[in-house]
Design goal:
The complex is a heterodimer of chains A (205) and B (514). Chain A has 6 helices and 9 strands, in the order βββαββαααβαβαββ. With 205 residues, chain A is an alpha/beta fold. In chain A, helix 5 (156-171) runs parallel beside helix 6. Chain A has a domain at 72-138. A 6-stranded mixed sheet of chain A has the order 5-6-7-3-8-9, sandwiched between helices. A 3-stranded antiparallel sheet of chain A has the order 2-1-4, with helices on one face. Chain B has helices at residues 5-34, 65-76, 91-97, 111-116, 158-170, 182-189, 199-208, 233-248, 251-258, 265-275, 294-297, 302-344, 347-362, 365-373, 384-410, 413-421, 426-456, 468-479, 483-513; strands at residues 38-43, 53-55, 58-63, 80-85, 102-103, 118-119, 124-133, 150-154, 173-177, 194-198, 212-214, 220-224, 227-228. Chain B starts with a helix and ends with a helix. Chain B has 4 domains: 1-32; 38-122 and 225-285, D-Maltodextrin-Binding Protein, domain 2; 125-222, Periplasmic binding protein-like II (D-Maltodextrin-Binding Protein, domain 2, 3-Layer(aba) Sandwich); 302-513, Orthogonal Bundle (MetI-like fold), CATH 1.10.3720.10. Chain B is of the alpha/beta class and 514 residues long. Classes of the chains: A alpha/beta (205), B alpha/beta (514). At the A-B interface, strand 5, helix 2 and helix 4 of A face helix 16 and helix 17 of B.
Chain lengths: 205, 514
Amino acid sequence: MTVLDVRSLEVRRGGRTIVAGVSFAASPGDVVALMGASGAGKSTILRAIAGLDPIVAGSVAIPRPVGMVFQFHHLFANMTAHRNVWLAPVHVFRRPRAEAERRAQELLVSLGVGDRASAMPHELSGGEAQRVAIARALAIEPPVLLMDEPTASLDPARRGDLAATLRRLAADGRTIVVATHDAEFARACAHRVLAVEGGRMRDVS
Amino acid sequence: MTWNPVTCSLFPVTFRFTALACLALLAPRAVLAQQPIELRWGGDAEGGAPYVEADPADPSRVVGFDVEIAQLLAGGLGRTARFVQVGFTSIDAAAARGDFDVGLSGIEDSAPRRSRLVVTIPYYEFREVLTVRSADAQKYRSLADLRGRSVATLGATLAYDLLVEAQAREGIVPVTYEDDVHPYSDLVLGRVDAVVLDAILAQRGVRRNAGLTNQSAPLAIGHYVGILAPEATAMRDRMNVVLRDAMRDGRLEAIFKRWGVWNEDQPRLYARVLADPSQYPVAASSLSPSSDAAQTLSGPRTWDAARRYLPALLRAAVITIVLSCLSMALAIAAGALIASGRIYGAAPLRIALTGFVEIIRGTPLLLQLFVLYFGLAAFIQLPAFVAALLGLGLNYAAYESEIYRGALEAVPAGQLESARTLGFTEPQILVLVRAPQAFRLALAPMTNDFVALLKDSSLVSVITVVELTKETSIFAANIGSWVLPGLMCAAIYLAMSLPLARVARRIERGWRHA
């Protein structure tokens, strides 16, 4: 069963073609790694899938809502880690506040940052902020989770933890697409590795 | 040099002749070198006819009865008159500093002036007159009929003192103007219910505005005098001689007749002045023609004055703080709307808002206040306080909007993007994420602006709102010194602005820990 289907994706920015002819599909439980050097077009593919950048040609079929974890996390600076997580369920998905808060706390605990719930974003370490950002993305229960350069702010030991976490999340039936330049991490977490080079893609797994 | 006996015998004659010839040649020049040939006299050409006004045919010249009295004085002293322009409200201070030899501009004789400056004998007697709309002529015959009503006058005049006294006694509301034209136009518009000014101004006001009536019973009697620096007593005495001569031989009468302000009060005044050769042949001023109420207007000691004016200053400070707080609230609300419109609005709205901001920032607040209060009066008559609130509030809204726009744009775009992927709508992003962060960034410049607004609120005195600075300048004019009023005023402003800065710091600190 295909949950994510990307066909002949083309993205241009400022008259320049950034990504062209990218096609891949993924099923529930898949962890797909888009691997390549900086500037290869990995982030642009993720942004186009998430609907943040307009596509010029091709198609993207993806169930909503889409979970996205940015390289720099982009947590809301004016609220605690906990509120970062329950804000969208309450204000966008109209969940009861108490239930959303309890669920947010559960997510934070499951990601190992339950004790940091009341911290402000600037008080979190890079790894903590990333796990809060993952919890925030998961709180809206997206079938597909997109992650941009998740290892950038992690030391090597933490990278292993993250790979295990992503495997566990995929095992629950989610589809995960990770853009990374870290080949070791890609091999550790992904079922499939797609190499991105000059805006084009080939399957290397 | 050798001594020659022949020339020696001739010397005394030659010497005497030469010395006399030299003296004859040098004498006028020597006298002129010791004494300036000009008589510098100060006046305010903005006061207009019949006192001093720029000649409509040649604006570089001044004409008016005060101009002719200056020429009369100069002629009597063997000098030529030269006009020095001085703002009416600073004329006492300029005289005390010696900016001119004599000030003449419809200056009222008063006890404070006598105590601070040297004044000439009076050269004109005027009556303080109550002017009302003709329809109210039967209803409002005296100040006692005007309880709870607004009565206008010119600041720092005998008429103002009269109104302050009537405020306590009759419960009228004095409204002060910076000029003598708008009291009458505002009376026509219904912004005030009466005007008290001297008869010359009142007659001019009634002539220029249809539908006004001057009540015949005078509220008080006053006199115009020349003012000189405190040490210029000798000059004053010489001027008094010239003035008395001009009273005797009819030259003053001719001047006042030429300007259409001669009346039967003047010969009576001149008779009293000529019968009494002393320095002060008449009392400084009297609140009613018969009473000896001059006491109530005489200058008390400075400390007494401070005690007497403190309640008025504090009342004015309340006006300042209430006006500033309301204006700032308006500025914040309107500024936030303008900033949002400029970021989220469609192109036409963005252009319109940018235009508004640039026009407001590019023109003086003073001009905006004039336009709001006097300029729009033909279409909509805003009460003075409302015009002040709108003027200050909208002016500061332009500045606030720029602060908020900058602060909103300073919130990292990544946070807005992540909010969009979570499904928030743009208004939700603004309210939940962007505005709270922008507000924290804006707080310090906002505090700064509020302190600036607190001080800029002093400008609203030009549209008759008596706030702290205006009250202080009235106080200063009445006691003839800025030292104590200035210190008291500064202390009250600081007492208002310093706690504000502390509150803002506390809020900022609170947010950092939140």
